Amino acid sequence: MMDANEAILALVKEPRKRVGLIQERFAQELAGALSTVNHSENGNHLPHRFLLRRFPELREEWDKENLPGQNSGQPQGIAPTYADILGFCKSATLEEIRKHGYVLTPGRYVGAEAAPDDGEPFEEKMARLVARLREQQAEAAKLDAAIAANLKELGYGR
């Protein structure tokens, strides 16, 4: 079973290959940069959310255009693919939606991906994180004071 990141990366490559587009043309269709598509397909980074939101629209457009290699919106011999991805997407049944009182908040259905256990005991981790927060707050106070002094020097101080 693929993890959420692998599944998201497959969302970039699968539709492009399905309709037979080269990366450059696919990037144009998405109104994105070629480097973004290339890096996403190679697993260097996840695609931007605005690109992921464009996929359903593009599939409809491609189906209407009946691009080469397509037959009624689907290439011959290739079945449409979809998989629920914990923390990312879920195809809810009408019964599940009924159980939730027809509330369509995604979190009720999609869930959250399990966070990997880093092996650090909770108490130690919290102590470390709180100490780091205190250091950052002290640094922020110093920066605030320096900014206030600079503004005062420029005649905008209190």
UniProtKB/TrEMBL annotation:
Organism: Methylacidimicrobium cyclopophantes
Gene3D superfamilies reported in the protein's UniProt record: Vaccinia Virus protein VP39 (3.40.50.150)
Coiled-coil stretches noted in the UniProt entry, renumbered to this chain: 126-153
Keyword Transcription carried by entry: no
Record-annotated DNA methylase adenine-specific domain positions: 83-115
Name of the protein: DNA methylase adenine-specific domain-containing protein
Keyword Transit peptide carried by entry: no
GO molecular function, one term: DNA binding
Keywords: Coiled coil
Pfam families: N6_Mtase
SUPFAM superfamilies listed in its UniProt record: S-adenosyl-L-methionine-dependent methyltransferases
Superkingdom per UniProt: Bacteria
Family, similarity comment: Belongs to the N(4)/N(6)-methyltransferase family.
InterPro entries assigned: DNA_methylase_A-5 (IPR003356), SAM-dependent_MTases_sf (IPR029063)
